[in-house]
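Notes from the 1:1 (GR / supervisor)

We went over the backlog. Supervisor wanted to see one worked example end to end before approving the batch request, so GR pasted a single chain during the call. The sequence is below; no edits were made to it. Supervisor asked that the structure be written out right there so they could see what the output format looks like.
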Amino acid sequence: MDAEQARQVDAVLRQLGIPGVVAPVDPENPAGQWRVYDTADPTTRREMTADALASVAAEFPGEKPGPGPTRGFVIPPEGE
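Structure output shown during the call:
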């Protein structure tokens, strides 16, 4: 992810209370790729982007249709 996407991911993680530090892969190049890590320290951090994104996805399970009509098409039988 780039820096703008990283800001968005960071905001979502904080909003949902999911742990993780969003930081550039290369601390000397903030214009490069970013990932989610367990700590901010570049010498001891462990990359956990996939785990963090899976936790975000788990917060938004697929929506189930509610009661009542839903959008769709009604195709009448032939001859009507």
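Supervisor's comment: Strands lie at 21-24, 34-37.
Batch request approved.
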